[in-house]
Amino acid sequence: MDGTGAPAPAVPSARREHEGRSVGAADIYLEVQRSAAFQEVRSRYRRFVIPGVAVFFTWYVGYVVAATTAPALMAQPVAGAVNVAMLAGLGQFLTTFLFTWAYARHARLRRDRAALDLRWDTQELTRGVRGGER
Length: 134
Description:
Layout: H1 25-34, H2 36-69, H3 71-74, E1 77-79, E2 82-83, H4 84-126
Antiparallel strand pairs: 1-2
Helix pairs in contact: 1-4, 2-4
């Protein structure tokens, strides 16, 4: 399922690309890494992480820059002893937890099943190769 509750698009299996070949485990891992299924899992990871890190890093640097260059702004009281700096600092913690939750949800809904399928396919393909059996 994706973030909307609909099932995530299927990722093609890497197993078909290796049927009937006699290769070593290293070759199998390289082929799986080159497979469309692996590339799709990596692409899904990058499409979430790169923008997320960019937004979070910008927010963090903005907070640090504001704290050092605009102390009067950061000292503005909001409610009682709570000022803008305190709220922004607490906001840093909140966004850390929100980003962690969003990452875990994205991984569960968009990547985990496909990654487990790849792992299963890889283990099946390397089962006969381990210990020099092939």
